Amino acid sequence: MARITLDNLAHSYKPDPKGEEDWALKQLDHVWADGEAYALLGASGCGKSTLLNIISGLLQPSRGRILFDDKDVTHAATAERNIAQVFQFPVVYDTMSVRDNLAFPLRNRGASAGYVAERVQTIAAMIGMEAELDRKARGLTADAKQKISLGRGMVREDVNALLFDEPLTVIDPHMKWELRTQLKALHRDFGHTMIYVTHDQTEALTFADKVVVMHDGRVVQIGTPEELFERPAHTFVGYFIGSPGMNLLPANVTGATAVTNGAEIALDRAYDGLSGKVEIGVRPEFVRLSDSEGLPVRIRRVEDVGRHKIVRAEFFGHDINIVAGEDEEIGPDKTRVTFDAAHVNVYADDWRVEGRAA
């Protein structure tokens, strides 16, 4: 297990990058704690796989250093970093049995036959393949092969880090839940440093201790699922985390009051001297329909999703989504919305402003 330090790290696929847009990975300075589980979350092309490949040694960064504990591994080969990596698509030895596939990393390092047999049996149970141990990998389904690939990544107990690059893409939905649960159990039992790349917020939020949200080659926030939900540090985090994502409205903010299209909104904190593009953000869970107070809206439709309703409304051309209770009556008199002041965030040029006590 290792503490991973990203020191002044950046990468460009161009030989002579000029402007910021030429950098696939913009400057990163972060320390990831030994033994924690991290998820790299973001849309396709945001830089998360580039960062994972730099950590694994498959890619040399254009600038900066990678340290495992206090050892500089920036130019070390992948084999020298003592990591295990599981890729998006399964990588297995088709001519070997499932048992031999799982045993290969241990045998390759000279582990005793007894330890290999015990460890393979444990991992086979974890991935639900005990009955297939003596089958050849050739002919197995794609999701079965990916389970072997996951198992082979998890079979070693002495790795510095376990790296997962969207490993559940080819796994059926039911098995995804099981494998995520098993990965968390593995982390709890053995305390490996784990880094899990995904574009799926559910996978990230259910797997990780800390979620690293990336956007346009930059880490915009590292936090617990609760922090990402309650206090998105960037408007992208508010949009990307949650379903529906955060409501954003342009506003003029003075002190503890925001004004948007002539309507006043009370804030829980006060703000001074904001400039640039100023917006307020509030999650649909903290928006309430009203018949007498708040912002005037036009309800476009109501979606019943079982446990609650999602109300799609419009305020002077801006979308506002509301999460309403399953039993809540949404009649024609509900033409206004109010916001919970304690959960209204203020953003300047897309970054959250902390404000001061009002």
TrEMBL record:
GO cellular component: ATP-binding cassette (ABC) transporter complex, substrate-binding subunit-containing
The UniProt record lists the keyword 4Fe-4S: no
Residue span, ABC transporter domain: 4-241
Single Gene Ontology MF annotation: ATP binding
Pfam families (alphabetical): ABC_tran, OB_MalK
Keyword ATP-binding: yes
The organism's place on the tree of life at top rank: Bacteria
Entry-linked InterPro entries: AAA+_ATPase (IPR003593), ABC_transporter-like_ATP-bd (IPR003439), ABC_transpr_FbpC (IPR015853), ABC_transpr_MalK/UgpC-like (IPR047641), Mo/tungstate-bd_C_term_dom (IPR008995), NA-bd_OB-fold (IPR012340), OB_MalK-like (IPR040582), P-loop_NTPase (IPR027417)
Matching SUPFAM superfamilies: MOP-like, P-loop containing nucleoside triphosphate hydrolases
Keyword annotations of the record: ATP-binding, Cell membrane, Membrane, Nucleotide-binding, Transport
Similarity-based family: Belongs to the ABC transporter superfamily.
UniProt xrefs under PANTHER family: ABC TRANSPORTER ATP-BINDING PROTEIN, MALTODEXTRIN IMPORT ATP-BINDING PROTEIN MSMX
UniProt name for this protein: ABC transporter ATP-binding protein
The species this protein was found in: Rhodosalinus sediminis
